[in-house]
Every structure is written in structure tokens, then in C-alpha cells.
Design a protein that fits this description.
By secondary structure, the protein is mainly β. The chain is built from two helices and 22 strands. The protein has helices at 109-113, 340-345; strands at 2-8, 15-20, 29-34, 44-49, 76-77, 91-92, 120-122, 143-146, 151-155, 166-169, 177-180, 186-190, 198-207, 215-225, 239-240, 246-249, 254-261, 269-271, 280-283, 290-295, 301-310, 318-328.
């Protein structure tokens, strides 16, 4: 939302500018900004901001201000089966779910048409050897693929010094593989589906055989488009999102959030054929693709739970992923000596407190 204001500059005439203010007030207010331009002159710039006032029933034409919070804006208490908090209550926002953050770099069709991005080089360790040149890949180009088709790219790194470089992918897309051909080359195989439509940057790094720190990273852009008949895209089994190792203390409540992924763009259901004793396993109230497992381990050791991800369109399509939690005895978490907080108190250092300046 843009509001107009007069910019008064003591060094020149007044002029009108547009300020992106948003809906922050319902009345007129004045803001004074002081800035230093040079050591010799410190002008005062005063900006008078006039915001459209809102009637109690709302504004017309899409303008106006954000209404004051009401009863419907109060945080919602989360049920205990979705967390392991003790001694306090967990609450969440009552509004609609926020969109997922985009973690990948976005590219345009114009950038795709320009060809592959420039490679980057990591210099060798120690003094540079003028005789040792960086490894490289030949004939890499941006590629366009139709969703549902299988893309295969053979990567064969070369070294000007005649040796055989190593290589590794920076990050594989979901469902892709980077297979060794046992002849110095590797093949990138990927079947993009509906969720992959767009432009993806895929990077493979070649490693110099004489100095493993001497590397060259070569990116390409892969553009995935929908076919003329989207029904020709195969429906594949869903999967469980990547799980990192977890460790729990015996007797403590364990809360595990498990996320299902379907590369066809639908939301799978998750099932536990053999849950731990006394466990609950329910769909998250806010994120439909997430299920929450909660249980209290009664014995130490490794607890393994098989999680079934089932397709929402074809229930015969499913995958099974084992999830393991290492449960350790209470004594394993005890440490000798004084707690850090006690040691800090002896030096008048507060640990675990918000500092007030």
C-alpha cells in the first residue's frame, strides 16, 4: 500500500514521494527522522504521513487499516498429545497456515535461455601449483524435460593433467539418483513429476585428483514442464521425508513429527502398523502432511517403528520406512561437577536469564 507524503528538505524544494507504509494506524501521525549527511550539515527531514481512517465497519475499495485484535485472534492452545511440554502450555496462531518458505533459488525462462550458469572454483590448498589445472566437465547444457519422463545425464569429469577426477552432486532432487558407472563416469537419473514443474539448478562438483581441496562446481538448469495430457504422468508411491537420528532419555515423553511426501503433489496418509506401547499417532491439526507420534519409552535401547506412507489417490501405492530412536538410561545424561549455572553465578554471570540493559 502506497501513501503520499511531502518530503521537506532544507537543502532544496519540497517534493512528493510515495512511501510503502502498509496498514499501521487509523489516524494521522507525524514521524521525524534525523540523519547525518556530512559532518558540517545535519538537516532535519520531516515526513508528514496521512493514513486513510477506517470506519468501524471496515473500509471500502480495499483500503483502510488492520482492525484491532478481537476474540477470534486469541492464540489457540495446542493439545498435549502434540508436544511434550510440562509446566506450561503451548499455543499457536489461530489464523490460516502460512505458505511454506521457498528454500531454492528461483530462475526465469530468460535465464534458462542464456545457458548454464558459470562454474565456480575452490582454490587448491597451500601454495598454488601453476602446473596443476582445475578439473572440468565438457558439453554441459541446460535441459528441458516433460514431467513423467526420465532424465539421464552422464557426467564424465576431465583433468588437464591426465588423471581421473572425483565428483559429487551438491544436492539431489527428491527421487533422483547419482549412479556410479564404474568407468570414471556417473549418471544422474531423475523422473520429475507434478511437484517439480519449474526450473531447478543442479550442480556437480569435480575434485582434482592431486589436491582434493581444488574443486570446480558446474551447475546446469533443468526446466520441467507439464505434458499436453497431465493424466499421462505416472502416479508413484509416496515416501517419508528425511529423518535425522534421534536420542531420548528413558522415561521422558518422545514427540516425533513425521512428514509424508508425494512427488505427484498430493498429500499421503501415514500409518503405524506396530506402534510402541501406549503411543498416540495423529495427524497434525495445522499441517495435514505431518503426523505426530508420541510415546514414553519404558526400556533403553533402539526403538524402531515402521512408518507406512500411503497414496491418497491409489491406496495400493505405499512405501515403508523404518524410524529408529535411541533410548538411553537417565544416568547417561548426568555429568560430574557443578552445573554451568552454578559456576557462572560464582563470577556474577547470569545463565538462562534475559539481560536487562
Amino acid at each position: 500500500m502506497l501513501h503520499h507524503a511531502n518530503w521537506i528538505d532544507v537543502h532544496g524544494p519540497s517534493r512528493q514521494v510515495e512511501l510503502p507504509l502498509g496498514h499501521y494506524a487509523e489516524d494521522m501521525f507525524m514521524q521525524t527522522i534525523k540523519t547525518t549527511r556530512t559532518a558540517a550539515a545535519i538537516p532535519l527531514m520531516t515526513i508528514y504521513l496521512l493514513l486513510a481512517a477506517c470506519s468501524s465497519g471496515g473500509s471500502s475499495g480495499g483500503g483502510g487499516s488492520t482492525p484491532a485484535p478481537g476474540p477470534d485472534d486469541e492464540p489457540i492452545a495446542e493439545e498435549s498429545r502434540f508436544n511434550n511440554a510440562t509446566g506450561f502450555q503451548v499455543v499457536r496462531e489461530p489464523g490460516a497456515r502460512l505458505p511454506d518458505a521457498v528454500e531454492t533459488e528461483e530462475f526465469t525462462d530468460a535465464q534458462f535461455a542464456l545457458g548454464p550458469p558459470q562454474p565456480t572454483f575452490l582454490p587448491a590448498s597451500g601454495p598454488a601449483d601453476p602446473q596443476n589445472q582445475a578439473p572440468f566437465f565438457d558439453n554441459l547444457e541446460n535441459l528441458e524435460v516433460v514431467a513423467g519422463d526420465t532424465l539421464e545425464i552422464v557426467y564424465r569429469p576431465q583433468d588437464p593433467d591426465g588423471e581421473l577426477p572425483g565428483m559429487f552432486p551438491e544436492k539431489l532432487p527428491q527421487g533422483a539418483t547419482f549412479d556410479d558407472n564404474f568407468d570414471g563416469s556417473k549418471t544422474f537419473r531423475w523422473q520429475p513429476l507434478q511437484a517439480d514443474v519449474g526450473i531447478l539448478k543442479f550442480t556437480v562438483t569435480a575434485v582434482d585428483p592431486a589436491d582434493s581441496n581444488f574443486r570446480a562446481s558446474y551447475p546446469i538448469l533443468i526446466k520441467t514442464v507439464l505434458p499436453d495430457d497431465p493424466s499421462t504422468i505416472p502416479n508413484v508411491a509416496p515416501m517419508l521425508d528425511e529423518i535425522i537420528p534421534h536420542t531420548a532419555r528413558l522415561g521422558d515423553a518422545v514427540v516425533f513429527e513425521l512428514k509424508g511426501i508425494d512427488l505427484n503433489g498430493t498429500t499421503p496418509t501415514l500409518e503405524l502398523p506396530n506402534p510402541p506401547t501406549g503411543a498416540t499417532f495423529e495427524q497434525h491439526p495445522r499441517f495435514e502432511e505431518v503426523y505426530v507420534l508420541k510415546f514414553v519409552p519404558t526400556t533403553s535401547g533402539v526403538v524402531t517403528v515402521d512408518v507406512v506412507a500411503r497414496d491418497s489417490v491409489d491406496s495400493s501405492l505405499s512405501s515403508v520406512t523404518p524410524v529408529s530412536i535411541t533410548v538411553r538410561e537417565v544416568e547417561d545424561f548426568q555429568r560430574s561437577g557443578q552445573p554451568l549455572r552454578s559456576l557462572a553465578a560464582n563470577r556474577n554471570i547470569q545463565v538462562g536469564f534475559a539481560a536487562l540493559q
